[in-house]
Design a protein that fits this description.
Keywords: ATP-binding, Chaperone, Nucleotide-binding. It holds the Pfam family HSP70. Belongs to the heat shock protein 70 family. This is Chaperone protein HscA. This protein is of the alpha+beta class. It has 4 domains: about 325 residues, ATPase, nucleotide binding domain (Nucleotidyltransferase, domain 5, 2-Layer Sandwich), CATH 3.30.420.40; about 70 residues, ATPase, substrate binding domain, subdomain 4 (Actin, Chain A, domain 4, Alpha-Beta Complex), CATH 3.90.640.10; about 120 residues, Substrate Binding Domain Of DNAk, Chain A, domain 1, CATH 2.60.34.10; about 90 residues, Up-down Bundle (Substrate Binding Domain Of Dnak, Chain:A, Domain 2). It is about 35% helix and about 20% strand. Strands 2, 3, 4, 5, 12 and 13 form a 6-stranded mixed beta sheet that branches. Strands 1-24-23-20-21 form a 5-stranded antiparallel beta sheet. A hairpin with a 4-residue loop joins strand 14 and strand 15. Helix 5 crosses helix 6, helix 11 runs antiparallel to helix 12 and helix 12 packs antiparallel against helix 13. The protein is elongated. The two termini are about 25 Å apart. It binds adenosine-5'-diphosphate and magnesium ion. Adenosine-5'-diphosphate binds next to helix 5 and helix 6.
Length: about 675
């Protein structure tokens, strides 16, 4: 769609009042990175550019089971909670990550918990079903449960660093706004300042330093991150561009993981023990033995297992036997991986690397099949269950203000810079995270032929509407010749130099009139505020998208109504160009458009009304065009007319695509 800039009266441009610079609140090197996992969570630090390091508990263990027990009226987190899970299945909560940001109605998987009757927010009753019988329920929310886990990890951080200034918490790439918000809330309840949430695959890529290994000067690359955990499988395709990762596609299976390997092996062992109806105690034994055997088989070719309670004497189990059991499960992950590559429109040969994440990628068969499927050896130097936490720690350290080799935050544009266009919509000219110096330009056009000036409003931020962004400067470009709609050509260029000084220049291409201003976009913005603005846009992504669609639909319908109305008015008495009934129908469609414009709060009815008007008036438009051609080209050959038509069409297409060009280096 062609972008138009609104017309206003005023003359001089005005620069936003600079604010006093804010000192940074963040303590450099005091930030932690957290992998808040479904089955396990970890915390890592990487103070002031140091190598990341996992923080251990008092017993020297890295992994904190993501389990919280409320049994006996006490809140216990981790291994101690796990230990009492069998006795108190309804009071020991595990895998609450699956409930985050979900309403009761969204829960379509099995779990042993008692949920509150409300459907909007999800809460779990953790009162003792026996001791508290007759008492009112004791509800906890998944956010609170996650907060308890985060508190334990933050505590490890405080012990190591003396204080914790903030955290980066990882979330699956597919998490939606509600799930992200819930995770941030959990951080806040745990007393953490959440600098930002980071997608798990991006964290893994950061841990491998893939952001610095990209091809070419802009740092380009394509990566697959294969994450097989305890209960979930996630595959993500990432694109690296200009040192920034973008998630191109995600896929996987939210009910497939290492726990399924345990179950497959346990079932085989029960069969061997000829137990078709095991007791809970026997079941617990076989599951524990199966998991231990599985993990041992990642190193050894054979293991010996014995099931005392199930009456199975020592038997040998080979890796080949285990592989045969889990083969079908692993193949499912491979199929999902291929489908996701397809979604991302990426061929496996284009990939620059495959990263393995999650404890279950230690299984040799998994590694072998992944290698075969992607046609390359996956990256696995970093412990697959720590790699996400490492990446979070690196990102946290950067956001706390540390400078790292190869990553100098000052070199990127912290917030997008753009221009307000018709309807209050922001057209981003320089995207966030672009490396500076950079220049970009885009051509805009006029909306109506009455327009002899254009008002330029330079804004900063990630939101879609100018009102929600930070206003940087306004100026006027006057002296534009009167031209039919969409015929004027105003080129606006944004140049951001190495000192982050922005020069915006607008030039009318026919007359050459030009106007420009200078502004310092980072002036008076603290790192905190930048992060806030970015997070804000994430929080509003969905409503922004709708608001932008609506605003665009309004502009489009207004443009079409104006054009058709003008044509109908102009045609006046010209014979044969517009029959009375056709005129009636077109005017009715215009009235319908105007009614839609007055009422609609959604893009769809506007677009429908506009499309109807376009369809109805299409024959009329064609006749006008033919007539114009006949009068303008009488005496020319058919070939000449055809080539003129083709030219006209091309021009139309060029107008359709809004011509943006980035020429930075
Ligand atoms: P999540 O991210 O879902 O919390 P993890 O990445 O911590 O999960 O992975 C947990 C899974 O990894 C469990 O099923 C566990 O049995 C499995 N796992 C851990 N170590 C090994 C190993 N050495 N061999 C095979 N599987 C392992
Ligand atoms: Mg994980």
């Amino acid at each position: 769609m062609t972008q138009s800039i609104d017309i206003t009266g005023g003359g001089l441009f005005q620069i936003a009042e600079p604010e006093a610079p804010n000192p940074r609140r963040r303590a450099v090197g005091k930030a932690i990175g957290i992998d808040l996992g479904t089955t396990h969570s970890l915390v890592a630090i990487a103070p002031k550019g140091a190598e990341p390091q996992i923080l251990l508990d008092e017993d020297g263990r890295a992994l904190l089971p993501s389990v919280v027990s409320y049994a006996g009226g006490r809140t216990v987190v981790g291994r101690a909670a796990q230990a009492v899970a069998v006795e108190h299945p309804e009071q020991v909560l595990s895998s609450v990550k699956r409930f985050m940001g979900r309403g009761r109605a969204d829960i379509d998987f099995d779990h042993p918990y008692r949920l509150a009757p409300d459907t909007q927010v999800m809460r779990i009753d953790v009162s003792d079903p026996v001791a508290d019988a007759g008492q009112p329920p004791r509800y906890v929310s998944p956010v609170e449960v996650s907060a308890r886990i985060l508190e334990v990890l933050a505590e490890r951080g405080a012990r190591e660093l003396g204080e914790v200034s903030g955290a980066v918490i990882t979330v699956p790439a597919y998490f939606d706004d509600a799930q992200r918000q819930a995770t941030k809330d959990a951080g806040r309840i745990a007393g953490l300042e959440v600098y930002r949430l980071l997608a798990e695959p991006t964290a893994a890529a950061l841990a491998y330093g893939l952001d610095r290994q990209g091809r070419g000067e802009q740092g380009e690359g394509l990566f697959a991150v294969y994450d097989l955990g305890g209960g979930t499988f996630d595959i993500s395709i990432l694109r690296l561009r200009g040192g920034v990762f973008q998630v191109l596609a995600t896929g996987g299976d939210s009910a497939l993981g290492g726990d399924d390997f345990d179950r497959a092996l346990a079932a085989a062992l029960l069969e061997q023990a000829e137990l078709s109806n095991p007791s809970p105690a026997q079941l617990q034994e076989v599951m524990q033995v199966a998991r231990a055997a599985k993990e041992a088989l990642s190193e050894a070719e054979t293991v010996t297992v014995a099931l005392e309670r199930c009456g199975l004497a020592s038997t040998e189990l080979t890796r080949a036997q285990f592989d045969a059991l889990i083969g079908p499960l692993v193949k499912r992950t491979i199929r999902a991986s291929k489908a996701t590559l397809k979604d991302a429109a990426v061929d496996k040969r284009e990939l620059d690397g495959v990263v393995l994440v999650g404890g279950s990628t230690r299984v040799p068969l998994v590694r072998a099949l992944v290698e075969k499927a992607f046609g390359r050896e996956p990256l696995l130097d970093i412990d697959p269950d720590k790699v996400v936490a490492y990446g979070a720690a690196i990102q946290a350290d950067i956001l706390s203000g540390s400078e790292r080799e190869g990553v100098t935050l000052l070199d990127v544009v912290p917030l997008s810079l753009g221009l307000e266009t018709m309807g209050g919509i922001v057209e981003k000219i320089i995207p966030r995270n672009a490396t500076i110096p950079i220049s970009a330009r885009q051509v805009f056009t006029n909306y109506s032929e009455k327009q002899t000036g254009m008002s330029m409003h330079v804004v900063q931020g990630e939101r879609e509407l100018a009102d929600d962004c930070r206003s940087l400067a306004r100026f006027e470009l006057g002296g534009i010749p009167r031209l039919p709609p969409s015929m004027a050509r105003v080129e606006v260029s944004f140049e951001l130099d190495a000192d982050a000084l922005l020069t915006v220049t607008a030039r009318e291409l026919m007359t050459g009139v030009k106007q420009s201003i200078e502004v310092k976009p980072t002036y008076g913005l603290s790192a905190d505020e930048v992060d806030e603005l970015v997070m804000d846009s994430l929080d509003h992504a969905r409503e922004d998208f709708a608001a932008r669609n609506l605003a665009e639909a309004r502009v489009e319908i207004g443009r079409v109504v104006l054009a058709v109305q003008t044509a109908v008015d102009e045609v006046g008495g010209i014979e044969g160009l517009l029959a009375d009934d056709e005129r009636e129908a077109i005017l009715a469609a215009i009235a319908a458009c105007e009614a839609a414009m007055a009422e609609a709060d959604h893009a769809d009815p506007l677009n429908a009304a506009r499309e109807r008007l376009e369809q109805l008036s299409e024959p009329f438009a064609r006749r006008r065009m033919e007539r114009a051609l006949r009068s303008g080209m009488s005496g020319r050959s058919l070939a000449e007319i055809e080539s003129a038509l083709a030219e006209e069409e091309q021009l139309d297409q060029r107008r359709g695509a809004h011509s943006a060009e980035i020429i930075g280096d």
